[in-house]
Amino acid sequence: MSERKEVKPLGILVALLIAIIFYLLGFPVSEQAHFVLVIAVFTGTLWFTEALPLHVTAMFSTVLLIIFAGIAPATAFSQYFAPTIVLFFGGFMIARAMQKHGLDRQIAFGFISRIGNDPAVFVLGLMVVTAFLSLWISNTAATAIMLPIGLFAVTKAGLKPLQSGFAKAVVLGIAFAATIGGIGTLVGTPPNGITVAGLAHEGIEVSFLEWMYYGMPFVVLFIPIAWFILMRVYPSEIGKIEIMREKSKWTKEHKLILLVGALTILAWVTSFIHSIADAVVAIGAVILLYVVGLLKTEDVSKIEWSALLLFGGGLALGAAIDSSGLGSYIGSLLVSIVSGQAKFVLFLLVLAFAVVMTLSASNTATAALLVPIVLPLAKMLGVGMKQLAILAGMGTSLDFLVPVGTPPSAIAYSSGYITVWDMFRAGIFITISGILLLAGMAWLYW
Question: Mind listing the pLDDT tens digit for each residue in 136-184?
Fold first, then answer.
């Protein structure tokens, strides 16, 4: 496989030309809002074309906001260590401890070894375990852990890439379950954090437990739906599989990490009692992992800093869109399109728009652009800001159509066991089901 280019000059040129066009066009907004719009268009185009690494584009946009839009450096750069980013930093460090000491693999094999040898049940088991892991570690890591386990069963059965329905169900099931599971908790996937940070700018706090209130029921309901669709689109051509069993003992390190993780989760879900911020709990967990020797200095360099930098740049851009008044202007334009629609139809439109955006950009980049627009839209429509923003944030994780939408889908495609058409063939039904389910839950349950 050829190495992916980090810089695409053509993409940069396209972004620059589009930004110049928006600069020359007249808009009924303040000069600062006009500059923020131009920078947002430039940034968004770079994100969509991936002309630069996403986190580099995020940092670049922050510099442009300071130089051209008059955003104070202290205001812009403070977003890079906002409470939500601190929370994700803690989540990444806990995940690093799990991966370093093999706890993630231990949990995976522990569950898989107890599943029966029916192929359909095996796929469901893979999906449940993957979704569970994705609640606490990144969906990318969850996919990387579970895919070799699934492919081991495929190769044991003598099935060939691109030809086996069972193999396609295994690969897609793991990828889709990782994406779905990431919706369930605040630390599951970056768009969740971007959404909560955007709401925090409006003075609306969403705790770890409250996010689970919205996300977990969806995950629990959607996993079996996605599995059912996969089994219908790609039924297994074999009647029995060989279950993998890996002989390994639970070490002291495993038990200590489980204890720290359990205490952290307990503190997160009981924040309404002790009022300690989720970010503070996360940092406390990291300190404890260092104190008991489960993390070392070098581990801090092995987490996803690029994701954290992308968060920071996205939050800085979102804050500028809000403070400059640009968000209100864009919201007013959207109101003319969606006003008068029933709430359920509005939810469907927001989710469909989020999915369409992720067809050409990552769900993280989409969330960074979409959430700042949705917030003023909710104000103008008289819809709950929290409700609509969370809906939009979760909606960016409902693209199961193409590999670019989410990292798990990209990993699945790179396995060589599926084509883009294979993903789309099952993904179109799963995406539509996810949109309908989430819109329905937001309408009836939220």
Answer: 877 877 887 788 778 777 777 777 777 788 889 999 999 999 999 999 9
Regions in the chain scoring below 70 on pLDDT = 1-5, 108, 112, 116, 242-248, 360-362, 404-405
Q: For residues 317 and 311, what is the distance between their CA atoms, to the nearest angstrom?
A: 10
- The pair phi, psi for residue 122, each rounded to 5°, is -60, -45
CA-to-CA dists, residue 41 to 33, 62, 389, angstroms:
12, 13, 21
Global pTM? 0.73
Alpha carbon distances (Å) from 260 to 30, 201, 248: 50, 31, 21
Predicted pLDDT at 319: 82
Sign, CA torsion 49/135/174/388: negative
